[in-house]
């Protein structure tokens, strides 16, 4: 049977807009992007549910669930679990071999480890968003246990997606009269984070679709190799590539998070040949700009 396209649910959000630009730029197998509302590159509209099945050209090679909520109170953030379960039900009904759920590095408690976070580390997220994603992962594990016939479920604990995180939003809002204000840590320099290029995310999804996991449920950190990237270095790289951003320093608040890094051992084991072009500030900036939807 010929594999169908990757089905991307909830593709109108920040990450979805970048992926719609990254997919053709990375010359990847076909994808079908879904959103509740029409838009550029959206091939399937309507809420996630049985009504989408009739519009599918056949079983998708994989389902990626981007649909989610990033802000609001605990009740609003609980929608992350409902949307994930709806994506899993749709994937099962569509006979997809694997459903990918977007989790977050925010499930790990800052300062709880003196090394990059591993998937086996305990999860004590201090923020409501991280707690909501932890609850989503637990619900997905229960769903997988109750559906031994598949699809496989893989939760992607995403690093900061370049162009789709809070820095990306601040870059797009920055103006000479209202420059971006970047935290300067007490020891000097800007916060450092594990980052993920939208191009690498798209390539990883296609790699998973080409060789779906056999385990019923799993989690994996997903980020660029090579360690963390400082936010001021990313701004400098954007400027060097023709997109200067007006910005200035401000003193970081007490207790500001200096570093948040992900261990990528499992990522390397799963996809040893995964092509990544976003390692380092220059690569991240180039991929951000190539993806188009995240241009400053």
UniProtKB/TrEMBL annotation:
UniProt superkingdom: Bacteria
Q: Which InterPro entries match?
A: Epimerase_deHydtase, NAD(P)-bd_dom_sf
Gene3D superfamilies, per the entry: NAD(P)-binding Rossmann-like Domain
In what residue span(s) does the NAD-dependent epimerase/dehydratase domain sit?
75-221
Per UniProt, what is one Pfam family of this protein?
A: Epimerase
Query: For this UniProt entry, which segments traverse the membrane?
Result: none
Q: What is this protein called?
A: NAD-dependent epimerase/dehydratase family protein
What species is this protein from?
A: Mangrovicoccus algicola
């Amino acid at each position: 049977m010929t594999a169908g396209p990757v089905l991307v649910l909830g593709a109108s959000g920040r990450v979805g807009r970048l992926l719609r630009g990254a997919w053709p730029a990375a010359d990847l197998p076909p994808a079908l992007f879904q959103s509740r509302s029409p838009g550029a590159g959206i091939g399937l509209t309507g809420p996630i549910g049985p009504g989408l099945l009739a519009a599918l050209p056949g079983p998708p090679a994989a389902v990626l669930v981007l649909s989610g909520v990033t802000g609001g109170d605990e009740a609003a953030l609980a929608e992350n679990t409902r949307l994930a379960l709806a994506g899993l039900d749709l994937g099962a009904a569509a006979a997809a071999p694997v459903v990918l759920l977007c989790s977050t590095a925010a499930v790990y408690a800052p300062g709880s480890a003196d090394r990059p976070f591993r998937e086996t580390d305990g999860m004590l997220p201090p923020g409501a968003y991280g707690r909501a994603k932890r609850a989503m992962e637990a619900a997905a594990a229960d769903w997988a246990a109750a559906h031994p016939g598949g699809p496989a479920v893989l939760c992607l604990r995403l690093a900061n997606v370049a162009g789709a995180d809070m820095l990306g939003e601040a870059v797009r809002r920055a103006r000479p009269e209202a420059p971006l204000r970047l935290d300067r840590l007490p020891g000097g320099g800007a916060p450092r984070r594990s980052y993920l290029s939208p191009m690498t995310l798209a390539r990883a999804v296609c790699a998973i679709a080409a060789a779906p996991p056999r385990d019923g449920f799993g989690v994996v950190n997903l980020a660029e190799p090579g360690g963390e990237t400082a936010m001021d270095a990313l701004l400098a790289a954007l400027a060097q590539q023709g997109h200067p951003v007006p910005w200035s320093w401000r003193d970081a608040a007490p207790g500001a998070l200096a570093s948040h890094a992900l261990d990528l051992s499992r990522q390397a084991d799963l996809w040893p040949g995964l092509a990544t072009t976003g390692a380092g500030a220059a690569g991240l900036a180039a991929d951000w700009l190539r993806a188009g939807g995240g241009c400053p």
